[in-house]
C-alpha cells in the first residue's frame, strides 16, 4: 500500500523498498507476480503522492500529488517494452513477458478455431484436449490480469505497460462475450467470461482494503484527535491520495470510454458513505459530531476541488455522503450545543461588565470615550459561531438559527442597562452601554443575511427601544433645567432676544455633562436633543399665547423664528451635529407667518406637508390662528390644500416631527 507522508513538505514519508513493495497489495494481502528478468527492475515505478496529516481540524484533507500527468507518463514507460515485439511470439512467450492483451488475443483465435467452425466427428477427442488446454491457458491469463489490476493502486508494483495490456485484454474479452451473445449456436462453457464485472469487483475490493488499512497521520496529529477523528482523517487522506494516483497514473492505462476516474470515485464515495453511516449509529460527543459533519460538508467536498480531480471527476454526480435523515440528528445536536455555549460565554461577558459596574465609579476612557467591551466580545462570539456553522452544516439557513441566542442576550443586556439607570448615577456605564447598542445595531444591519428575518426584526426593535430609553434617561435632566425657559417661548417675552439666547446658553451648559460618548453615538444623542428642543419651541408657539394682529407683528415674529432657527442650528453644529434636520421646519413656519396672501400661504402649507407628512390640519390651523387677521374661510382653504398634498406625499424615509407636537 502507498503510505502518504506527513504534512511537512520537507519531511517525506519513506518509500517502501522494492522487496517490501512487491509483497504488498492495497489491502494488505500478498501477491507474487513474478516478472521476467528483463522486466523487473526497469519496470518498477515509484510515485508517492504527498499528503497532509490532518493535524488541524481544518486541514484534515490531503495535499496535492507532486506528480503531474506528463511526469507520470514519462516515469511509467518501460525501457524494455516501448513497442510491441517484432518477432512472432508463442502464447507461452507472451505470458512470460506479461503481454496480456496479445495472450488474450491468441486465446480468442484458438477459441474461434475450436468453436467457430464445425469439426469432424473423428476429431472430437483431439478437440476436447485442446479445450482443456484452452481453459487452463485462459485461467493463467485471467490470474495475471487479476493480479495486475490488484497492483494498480500500489506505486511500487505499478507498471503502465502491463496494466494497459491487462485492460486491453479485458476489453477484448468483453467484445468476444458480445460476439457469442449474437451467435445462434452453443457458446463455450466460459462464455460469457464477464471480465469487466470481475475487473469492477477487484477495484471495489481494492477500495475497501485501502480504506481498511489507510496510511496513518503523524503522532502529533494523533494526540490532537480522538480515535474516531483519526479514523475519519486517515480514510479521507487515503481517498484523496488514491484518487490523485488514479487521475495521474492509472488513467493513462484505460481507454476514455471506461471512465476509470469516475468509476473509482463512485466506489470510494459509496464505501466511505457506508462507513460513515455505521458511525452515526453510535452516540457521539460534540467534538466527534462536529468533525463528522465537517467531513460530510467541508473536507470531503474539498477533496474534489483540487485541480487534477476537478478535471477528471464529476463530483456533483456523487451526491452527499450522508442523507438528510442521517445528518439531521447530528445537526440538531451541534446547534443545541453551540447555542448552549454561546449563552454561557455571553453571560460571562455580561457578568464581567456587571462586576466592573459594581466596583468602579467611572469606567476607563479610550480616546476620551467611556469603553465597554460587551458588544465587541459578544459580536465576535456570535459571528464566529455562525460562520463556523455555515461550514460545518453546509447550509446558511440552518446556521442562522444560532442567532436566536443573540436576541435572548440582548434582552439580558437591556435588563442590565435598566438596572444601571435605576441607580440614578454612574453615567459612564450608561454612556458606554449606549455605544454597545450602536455596535450591535450596526452589526445586525450590516450582516442581515446571517439572521432569520423575525430574529433580525426583534433584535433591531429591542435595540431601538434601548437607544430611545437611554436617550430619554440622559436628556431628561437637560430638559428639566431648560423648562423655565421653555415656558417663555411663544409669549411676548419671547420676542425679546435675551429669552432665546438664555435657552441656547443653557443647552450648551447642560450637554457638557454628556461627554464620553463615541462620535456616532454623540451625533445621535445631539440629534435627539436638537429635535426635542425644536419640538418644544414649535409646541409653545402653536399654543397661541401670542396674538399677531397685523403685518408688522407677523413679520417681526417671522424674523424671530428664522433667527432662532439659525442660532439653534449653529449651536448644534458646534456641539458636533452636522445635519440641518429638523431645524429647517422653523424657516417654513416663519414663511407662513410672514406671507399675507392666501395663494402664497397655501403653497407654503403644501411645502410643509411634503416635507413633514405627519403634520395635521390641527397643526396648520393652530399656526394660522396666530395671524388673527386671517379669516376662518382662508384657514379652511389652506387646510384643504394640505389634505390634497398629503394624499400625494410619499412617507417612505421621512422622519416624524409634528406627531410629537402636542396641540392642546
Q: Hey, roughly how much beta strand do the residues contain? A: under 5%
* E-strand count: 2
User: Low-confidence parts, pLDDT < 50 over ≥5 residues?
Assistant: 1-83
Mean pLDDT: 83
Order of helices and strands: HHHHHHHHHHHHHHEEHHHHHHHHHHHH
Class based on secondary structure composition and strand pairing: mainly alpha
**Helical percentage:** 55-70%
Q: How do the helices and strands line up, and which of them pair or pack?
A:
Elements: H1 18-22, H2 37-43, H3 69-76, H4 91-96, H5 100-115, H6 124-150, H7 160-181, H8 195-212, H9 219-224, H10 227-248, H11 260-279, H12 286-303, H13 307-312, H14 324-359, E1 365-366, E2 369-370, H15 374-393, H16 396-399, H17 404-422, H18 427-446, H19 453-486, H20 497-510, H21 519-541, H22 551-574, H23 585-594, H24 598-611, H25 617-625, H26 632-647
Antiparallel strand pairs: 1-2
Question: What is this entry, summarized?
Answer:
The chain is an all-alpha fold and 664 residues long.
Report on the structure:
The chain is mainly alpha-helical and 664 residues long. The protein folds into three domains: 1-319, no CATH class; 325-470, Tetracycline Repressor, domain 2; 487-660, Exocyst complex component Sec6, C-terminal domain (Tetracycline Repressor, domain 2, Orthogonal Bundle), CATH 1.10.357. Helix content is 64%, strand content 1%. It contains 26 helices and two strands. The chain has helices spanning 18-22, 37-43, 69-76, 91-96, 100-115, 124-150, 160-181, 195-212, 219-224, 227-248, 260-279, 286-303, 307-312, 324-359, 374-393, 396-399, 404-422, 427-446, 453-486, 497-510, 519-541, 551-574, 585-594, 598-611, 617-625, 632-647; strands spanning 365-366, 369-370. It has a two-stranded antiparallel sheet with strand order 1-2. A hairpin with a 2-residue loop joins strand 1 and strand 2. Helix 14 runs parallel beside helix 17 (404-422) and helix 22 runs antiparallel to helix 23 (585-594). The longest helix has 36 residues, at 324-359. The termini are far apart.
Amino acid at each position: 500500500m502507498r503510505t502518504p507522508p506527513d504534512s511537512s513538505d520537507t519531511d517525506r514519508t519513506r518509500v517502501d523498498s522494492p522487496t517490501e513493495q512487491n509483497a504488498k497489495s492495497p489491502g494488505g494481502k500478498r501477491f507474487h507476480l513474478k516478472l521476467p528478468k528483463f522486466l523487473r527492475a526497469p519496470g518498477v515505478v515509484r510515485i508517492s503522492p504527498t499528503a497532509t496529516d490532518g493535524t488541524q481540524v481544518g486541514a484534515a484533507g490531503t495535499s496535492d500529488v507532486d506528480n503531474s500527468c506528463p511526469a507520470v507518463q514519462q516515469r511509467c514507460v518501460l525501457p524494455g517494452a516501448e513497442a510491441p515485439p517484432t518477432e512472432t511470439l508463442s502464447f507461452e512467450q507472451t505470458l512470460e513477458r506479461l503481454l496480456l492483451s496479445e495472450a488474450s488475443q491468441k486465446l480468442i483465435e484458438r477459441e474461434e478455431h475450436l468453436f467457430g467452425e464445425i469439426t469432424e466427428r473423428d476429431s472430437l477427442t483431439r478437440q476436447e484436449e485442446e479445450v482443456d488446454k484452452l481453459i487452463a491457458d485462459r485461467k493463467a491469463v485471467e490470474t495475471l490480469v487479476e493480479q495486475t489490476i490488484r497492483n494498480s493502486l500500489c506505486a511500487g508494483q505499478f507498471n503502465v505497460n502491463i496494466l494497459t495490456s491487462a485492460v486491453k485484454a479485458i476489453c477484448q474479452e468483453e467484445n468476444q462475450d458480445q460476439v457469442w451473445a449474437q451467435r445462434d449456436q452453443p457458446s463455450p462453457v466460459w462464455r460469457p467470461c464477464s471480465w469487466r464485472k470481475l475487473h469492477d469487483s477487484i477495484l471495489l475490493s481494492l477500495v475497501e482494503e485501502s480504506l481498511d488499512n489507510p496510511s496513518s497521520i503523524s503522532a502529533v496529529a494523533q494526540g490532537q484527535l480522538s480515535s474516531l477523528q483519526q479514523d475519519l482523517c486517515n480514510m479521507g487522506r487515503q481517498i484523496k491520495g488514491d484518487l490523485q494516483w488514479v487521475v495521474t497514473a492509472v488513467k493513462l492505462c484505460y481507454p476514455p470510454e471506461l471512465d476509470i476516474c469516475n468509476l473509482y470515485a463512485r466506489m470510494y464515495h459509496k464505501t466511505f458513505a457506508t462507513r460513515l453511516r455505521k458511525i452515526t449509529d453510535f452516540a457521539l460527543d460534540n467534538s466527534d459530531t462536529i468533525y463528522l459533519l465537517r467531513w460530510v460538508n467541508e473536507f470531503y467536498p474539498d477533496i474534489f476541488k483540487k485541480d487534477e480531480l476537478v478535471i477528471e471527476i464529476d463530483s456533483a454526480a456523487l451526491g452527499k455522503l450522508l442523507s438528510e435523515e442521517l445528518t439531521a440528528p447530528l445537526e440538531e445536536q451541534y446547534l443545541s450545543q453551540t447555542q448552549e455555549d454561546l449563552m454561557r460565554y455571553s453571560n460571562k461577558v455580561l457578568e464581567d461588565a456587571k462586576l466592573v459596574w459594581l466596583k468602579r465609579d467611572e469606567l476607563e476612557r479610550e480616546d476620551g470615550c467611556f469603553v465597554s467591551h460587551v458588544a465587541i466580545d459578544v459580536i465576535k462570539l456570535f459571528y464566529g459561531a455562525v460562520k463556523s456553522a455555515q461550514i460545518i452544516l453546509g447550509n446558511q439557513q440552518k446556521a442562522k438559527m444560532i442567532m436566536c441566542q443573540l436576541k435572548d442576550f440582548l434582552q439580558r443586556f437591556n435588563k442590565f442597562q435598566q438596572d444601571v439607570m435605576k441607580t440614578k448615577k454612574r453615567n459612564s456605564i450608561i454612556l458606554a452601554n449606549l455605544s454597545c447598542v450602536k455596535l450591535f445595531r450596526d452589526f445586525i444591519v450590516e450582516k442581515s443575511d446571517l439572521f432569520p428575518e423575525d430574529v433580525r426584526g426583534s433584535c433591531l426593535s429591542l435595540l431601538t427601544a434601548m437607544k430611545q430609553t437611554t436617550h430619554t434617561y440622559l436628556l431628561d435632566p437637560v430638559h428639566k433645567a431648560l423648562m423655565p425657559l421653555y415656558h417663555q417661548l411663544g409669549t411676548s417675552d419671547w420676542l425679546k432676544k435675551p429669552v432665546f439666547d438664555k435657552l441656547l446658553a443653557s443647552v450648551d451648559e447642560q450637554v457638557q455633562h454628556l461627554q464620553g460618548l463615541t462620535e456616532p453615538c454623540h451625533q445621535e444623542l445631539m440629534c435627539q436633543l436638537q429635535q426635542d428642543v425644536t419640538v418644544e419651541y414649535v409646541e409653545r408657539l402653536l399654543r397661541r399665547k401670542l396674538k399677531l394682529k397685523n403685518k408688522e407683528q407677523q413679520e417681526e415674529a417671522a424674523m424671530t423664528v428664522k433667527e432662532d432657527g439659525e442660532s439653534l442650528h449653529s449651536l448644534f453644529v458646534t456641539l458636533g451635529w452636522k445635519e440641518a434636520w429638523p431645524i429647517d421646519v422653523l424657516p417654513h413656519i416663519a414663511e407662513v407667518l410672514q406671507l399675507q396672501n392666501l395663494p402664497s400661504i397655501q403653497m407654503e402649507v403644501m411645502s410643509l406637508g411634503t416635507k413633514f407628512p405627519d403634520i395635521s390640519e390641527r397643526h396648520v390651523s393652530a399656526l394660522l390662528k396666530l395671524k388673527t387677521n386671517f379669516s376662518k374661510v382662508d384657514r379652511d382653504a389652506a387646510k384643504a390644500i394640505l389634505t390634497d398634498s398629503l394624499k400625494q406625499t410619499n412617507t417612505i424615509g421621512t422622519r416624524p416631527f409634528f406627531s410629537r407636537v402636542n396641540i392642546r
